[in-house]
Design goal:
Elements: H1 9-15, E1 21-31, E2 39-40, E3 43-48, H2 63-71, H3 80-87, E4 92-96, E5 110-118, E6 124-132, E7 137-140, E8 147-148, E9 160-165, E10 169-171, E11 202-203, E12 217-218, E13 224-225, E14 240-248, E15 253-254, H4 259-267
Antiparallel strand pairs: 1-5, 1-14, 1-15, 2-6, 3-4, 3-6, 6-7, 6-8, 7-10, 9-14, 10-11, 12-13
Helix pairs in contact: 2-3
């Protein structure tokens, strides 16, 4: 006859990885700029282990940061996505663009996306985008430990609300700030025409609005740009750019490698061996 042999759950647990689950997060981005003010290119967000430091104030922009600052390109070879993965191969990224109309997030627009995040390995959050219109101005997180989204055990600390202001605006130093020579998102301008920049990443550098011809600018969308809403230098902390909210949606999702352990924890596992009487 056949005899059933039970393997204790505790023994099974030692043979399987510790339980972990991905947390489904919804990231919502809303432009808080007034009508006629600044826009941003699709926002690149990253969840990582805290080591993904993609730029430093006073340093030289990497190729990925230069692409973001001049063209808004966040993914692909040579981009910040590639640079992020080179530092932390387990990190996760997501691009948030508007679903209708032009991809940039314009004043008053909202967009969102979801991502299943491994909270144990990706505790921290960063964001990057180009300011529009500009030559090489961007928003980003200088210190990768600024926004802790999960605790050390992978528990979500949210809901999280982040106000992006003028204090998060940087000049990449890769192109001259000249609205008559190659700014992005402006009708009649070629972004490849920009002149040499200052050389290093700096905070609190203006957009070069003193070079705007009388009457202002017409943006690529056909809208008029109001330069009165672009002066973030005088009071950067109170200059609104974006609101970012991070919310948990749905139940935690077991990772494939730990699915068996979840079953054992719920009801135990039965291991059968065949024995002949």
């Amino acid at each position: 006859m056949r005899k059933l042999t039970f393997l204790p759950v505790a023994l099974l647990a030692t043979a399987l990885p510790a339980f972990a689950a991905a947390t489904t997060l919804e990231i919502t981005v809303t432009s808080s700029s007034p009508a006629g003010g600044l826009s941003v290119t699709p926002l690149y967000v990253a969840f990582h282990d805290g080591t993904v430091d993609l730029f430093d104030e006073g340093g030289v922009a990497s190729p990925g940061i230069e692409l973001v600052a001049e063209e808004g390109v966040a993914a692909g070879p040579g981009s910040i996505a590639a640079e992020r993965l080179a530092i932390d191969a387990d990190s996760q990224g997501l691009i948030l663009a508007t679903s209708t109309g032009a991809p940039p997030i314009e004043p008053g627009e909202t967009t969102s996306g979801t991502l299943d995040v491994d909270g144990e390995n990706n505790r921290f959050f960063s964001f990057f985008s180009m300011i529009l219109p500009s030559n090489d101005t961007f928003i980003g997180v200088d210190d990768p430990l600024t926004y802790e989204i999960f605790d050390a055990d992978g528990n979500f600390l949210g809901p999280i609300d982040i106000s992006v202001t003028g204090e998060d605006i940087y000049d990449a130093g890769t192109e001259a700030n000249d609205f008559t020579n190659g700014p992005a998102f402006v009708q009649g301008q070629d972004i490849n025409d920009g002149g040499p920049g200052e050389g290093t990443i700096e905070q609190g550098v203006g957009l070069g609005l003193d070079t705007i011809p009388f009457g202002g600018l017409t943006l690529a969308t056909g809208a008029a740009f109001n330069s009165a809403f672009a002066g973030f230098i005088s009071d950067p902390a109170n200059f609104p750019v974006l609101e970012i909210s991070i919310r948990e949606v749905g139940a935690p999702i077991p990772t494939p490698a730990t699915a068996l352990l979840l079953v054992s924890g719920l009801g135990g596992m039965l291991i059968m061996r065949r024995r002949r009487a």
